[in-house]
């Protein structure tokens, strides 16, 4: 197969990036005859030897972390209950929740053998993102204000404890700035929740 000629170059991609696409590998081997078949065989070989792992169709990694799938659905970020955990606003265990503007099927998927939840959102609502560096990888999460908005936008329940935790940490000026992006009805629902004393249900 002559794999060794390209294996080092391909594996170098995984040292530079936590997630590598099929297209990126193909670009390295662009001068090879029957490049598509060759790339498929090379990827199959690396998977079989457990030198890389498949995240989703056309995306691979060397890191055992299914939250990296957020990079497979760009533009996207990790949000909702996952972001609440990231911000230490609740202590319940959660699976990665990827919020994406891509036109893909939402729902639970198995990625690296574990569940990941995909939710869709309009592209205009892709803001309020901050990055957390984990293992030299900058992971995108919704900030506290956007997490609060998303919980209500997606009609997720917020218990009293979590609501109070959110209120104590929300920057009201930032929240008001974000809410300008939403229709009056949604904006009112979110502000009503922020101003009320009991939980949102």
Structure notes:
The protein folds into two domains: 58 residues; 130 residues, no CATH class. Helices cover 40% and strands 20% of the residues. It contains eight helices and nine strands. Strands 4-5-7-6 form a four-stranded mixed sheet. Strand 6 and strand 7 form a beta hairpin. It is elongated. The protein starts with a helix and ends in a 6-residue tail after the last helix. 30% of the residues are buried. The mean pLDDT is 91.
Keywords:
elongated, alpha+beta
Biggest pleated sheet = 4 strands, mixed
Mean pLDDT: 91
> In percent, how much strand structure appears in the residues?
15-25%
Overall geometry comes to: elongated
Question: Strand sequence of the main sheet, in spatial order?
Answer: 4-5-7-6
Structural class: alpha+beta
Number of strands: 9
Radius of gyration: 20 Å
The portion of residues assigned to helices is 40-55%
Number of helices: 8
Order of helices and strands: HEHHEEEHEEEEEHHHH
First-last Cα distance:
59 Å
| Number of domains as seen in the coordinates | 2
Low-confidence stretches: none
Summarize the structure.
This protein has 201 residues and is α+β, with helices and mostly antiparallel strands. Helices cover 40% and strands 20% of the residues.
Topology readout:
Layout: H1 4-16, E1 20-21, H2 22-28, H3 35-48, E2 53-56, E3 59-61, E4 76-78, H4 80-86, E5 97-100, E6 107-111, E7 114-120, E8 129-134, E9 137-142, H5 144-153, H6 160-169, H7 172-179, H8 184-195
Parallel strand pairs: 5-7
Antiparallel strand pairs: 1-3, 2-3, 4-5, 6-7, 8-9
Helix pairs in contact: 4-5, 5-8
